[in-house]
Amino acid sequence: MKRILISGFACAMLLIGIVDAQSQVARIYFKDSNHDYGVIKEDDGVAYYEFQFSNTGSTPLIIQRVETSCGCTTPDWPKEPIAPGKNGRIKVGYNPSGRPGAFSKTITVYSNAETPTVILQIKGEVIPHVKTPDEIFNISIGGKLYFEKTHIPFSRLFPGKIYTDTLKFMNKSSEVVKVAANAGGLNFLTVRVEPQSIKPKQVGNIIVTYDPQKRNDWGFVMDRFMLSINDSLITNTPISVTGSIEEDYSALSASELEKAPRVEFNTTSYDFGQKAEGEPVEYSFTIKNTGKSDLLIRKVKASCGCTTVQPSKNILKPGESTEIKALFRTNGYSGRQSKSITVITNDPKSSTTVLRLSGNVVKK
What we know:
The protein is mostly beta strands and 364 residues long. It has three domains: 26-127, Sandwich (Immunoglobulin-like), CATH 2.60.40; 133-245, Immunoglobulins (Immunoglobulin-like), CATH 2.60.40; 254-362, Immunoglobulin-like (Sandwich), CATH 2.60.40. Helices cover 10% and strands 53% of the residues. It has a five-stranded antiparallel β-sheet with strand order 9-10-12-16-14, with no helix packed on it. Strands 11-18-17-13-15 form a five-stranded mixed β-sheet, with no helix packed on it. Strands 20-27-26-22-24 form a five-stranded mixed β-sheet, with no helix packed on it. The chain is extended.
């Protein structure tokens, strides 16, 4: 009986010890774990918020580290232990610069608490920076006129349609400036300046109209024109106009597509292996019309370092084929090389095909 009493007493003391050990922990309690900044301005700089917490445990609380889901969020936390019953804060700064629109970020808190990991969240919406005229018009032409851009990308251009776009500019000088466009020789391009005499701080327009039918080309095209300021031609900063002239096949019916030409190549890539510098690479690609109407080879254009011989036929009847001869002169090249040849046809399903010559050139 005595042994039983002693054993029972020992078990009770052990249980008390375990319960007491379990109660000797730090506990972290946050008043809130989410914060909505609402709407903030990009121009207002870093937005701060403090997450308040308490140690509701019985031993000191140690914040080991705090990690954020984005470098735009900067945390600050107490480095000293937080005694039981005491409070602390984790200060979070969100930098909205260059980050317009809605955001949602997390902050992960690691500590020695009973629950060692806690995730906090911030969210909001950033109103983008409103650019000043000086920021918008920052490309100088002639030192007097400043443009927001000097390039008009027309993207896809379909012959038979007319395209128009506008460049804006500002006169940042202290005098009235006379402006004119020089697009001589580009009969497919019409350029109009409004107003032709522009006052200081006034914004003007350069209206560009493009007629791809008159351009008489296919595929990617680039053209440039220059401006005159007070009757002086500015040659070092031309305005560029780009686009891709393509046929519009969107209106073709199913039966028309069935009767269309089809382009087919024996291969679209040729690996020439290894060549010594100066040793030319020659290869002939075979192009065949496997469709039901005439295939028009509209354009064959080689990339830098590669030349081609135009095919002997530019119109292939159904079943006919011809060759596109490629020549890559390796002088001045070394290492891995890849040269391309763009072939444009009237195949509505594959109007543009890129052929490639690739391999290694060993330098002498």
